[in-house]
From TrEMBL:
SMART domains named among the record's database cross-references: HTH_ARSR
GO terms classed as biological process: response to cadmium ion; response to lead ion
InterPro entries membership: ArsR-like_HTH, HTH_ArsR_DNA-bd_dom, HTH_Metal-responsive_Reg, WH-like_DNA-bd_sf, WH_DNA-bd_sf
Name of the protein described by the UniProt record: Metalloregulator ArsR/SmtB family transcription factor
Length: 125
């Protein structure tokens, strides 16, 4: 087993949260273990897409696969991750109008009058 530095651990966590599908998987698993088919249905993605994202989350060390009979159940690799996700959800995030992230789904690119205003966006849980 390789021991990662704190910077590497945070980078892996950030990589996992940088994708909406992976973030949705983590949020589902925060509430308890689940089978891939159930995760795919609840998130609204194909099983193949879900499988690819679960592989990434396993590689990041955030989820674990547990055999359950003939199926495999997924869960967060550490109960502390559920608390960390709760803490993240409890923060207030304000996004400035000057955004250099170059992400196509950025709030900066949201048309005026839509739900998210490009001037300021607050995210509350």
């Amino acid at each position: 087993m390789r021991i990662l530095s704190t910077v590497d651990v945070l980078a892996r966590f950030g990589k996992a949260l940088s994708d909406p599908t992976r973030a949705a998987i983590l949020l589902q698993l925060k509430d308890g273990p689940a089978f891939p088919a159930d995760l795919a249905d609840s998130i609204g993605v194909s099983r193949q897409i879900l499988s690819n994202h679960l592989a990434c989350l396993r590689d990041c060390g955030l989820v674990a696969a547990e055999p359950d009979g003939r199926r495999v159940r997924y869960e967060l690799s550490d109960a502390k991750l559920a608390h960390a996700l709760e803490d993240l959800l409890g923060t207030i995030l304000t996004v400035d109008t000057i955004c250099g992230c170059a992400e196509p789904e950025c709030a900066q690119d949201t048309p005026p009058g839509s739900l998210a205003s490009p001037e300021t966006m607050e995210v509350r849980s």
